[in-house]
Amino acid sequence: MDNRELHILLVDDDEVDVMNVQRAFQKNRLANPIHVATNGLEALEKLRDGSIKGARRLVLLDLNMPRMNGIEFLRALRADPELQTTSVVVLTTSNEDRDKVEAYRLNVAGYLLKPVTFVDFVDVMGTLNKYWTLVEMP
Q1: Taking 70 as the threshold, does the pLDDT of residue 18 lie above it?
Q2: pLDDT higher than threshold 90 for residue 3
Q3: Which residues contact 118 (CB under 8 A, 6 or more apart)?
Q4: Which of 100, 97, 112, 35 lies closest to 74, judged by CA?
Q5: What is the predicted pLDDT for the residue at 127?
Q6: For residue 54, how many C-alpha atoms fall within 13 Å in the half-sphere facing its CB?
Q7: What is the pLDDT of residues 104-138, one digit of tens each?
Q8: Sign of torsion, CA 126 127 128 130?
Q9: 8 backbone dihedrals φ, ψ, rounded to 5°
Q10: Helical packing angle, 70-79 and 40-48, nearest 10°
Q11: Nearest of 11, 88, 4, 7 to residue 52 by alpha carbon
Q12: In the chain, what are the domains?
């Protein structure tokens, strides 16, 4: 595993949204490995089990999920000394102020609303790629 390569952990229970992210990556010619978890518990397990440990990681996090939602995941992530510095960008349909405030209180790197059209989705993923290639991430 190349520790300089940025691995994306996409945490989303909606199969269509997962496919849209994957297709948007392809359209933008992004080669970053994408790992998928369908809820916060599964995401924590993937981060802890060693499959992407040691790699540079970025979590793309939906908030509305079963079992453990995005805010609960962020609380658990920030409470874990091994994972607390993991970079997280929220990618959600929730435009609720309380969700935004709580996400930023839990140190997310950004809060993005999921675009309605696929063309806009491609643009958002392209912009996000520009961001993570410019920012120094652990």
Answers
A1: yes
A2: no
A3: 20, 23, 24
A4: 100
A5: 86
A6: 6
A7: 999 999 999 888 888 888 888 888 888 887 776 65
A8: positive
A9: -105, 125
A10: 30
A11: 7
A12: 6-134 (3.40.50.2300)
| Structural tokens at position 70 | 């995005």
C-alpha 101, offset from chain centre: 17
| Residue pLDDT, tens place only, 49-88 | 887 765 688 999 999 998 899 999 999 999 999 999 999 9
State how far the Cα of 104 lies from the Cα of 36, in Å rounded to an integer.
23
Q: What is the C-alpha to C-alpha distance for residues 83 and 47, in angstroms, rounded to an integer? A: 8
The Cα 75–Cα 115 span in angstroms is 26
Which contiguous run of DSSP H or E holds residue 10? strand 6-11
Task: Please tell me the predicted confidence (pLDDT) of residue 36.
Answer: 95
The amino acid at 43: A
